[in-house]
Amino acid sequence: MTTIVNVHEAKTHFSKLLEQAHRGQEIIVAKAGKPYARLLPLANAAPQRQPGRLAGRVDDAFFEPLPEEEIRAWEG
User: What family does this belong to (predicted)?
Assistant: First the structure.
């Protein structure tokens, strides 16, 4: 659900609007009745990749060439 507030209301209730945005609600700030800015929660940061995380979990069969019929299925 999107909430539209004017600049004066946004300045007056900024902390409350930040909490609403943090909970996932989209807040549109309007200036002179026209949408001007949008408050949204920050996206969660993607987890950092960790080299070697699967060490010992992938055996040699993983690196074997695929059978021809499977290659054809993937290539269409």
Answer: Belongs to the phD/YefM antitoxin family.
Please write the tens of the pLDDT for every residue from 1-23: 789 999 999 999 999 999 999 99
Strand-by-strand arrangement of the 34-39 sheet: 2-6, 26-31, 34-39
- Which amino acid, residue 31? K
pTM of the model: 0.55
- In this prediction, residue 72 has a pLDDT band, given cuts at 50, 70 and 90, of very high
Record the tokens describing residue 68, joined without a space. 């021809």
CA distance 7 to 31: 6
Question: At 34, which amino acid appears?
Answer: K
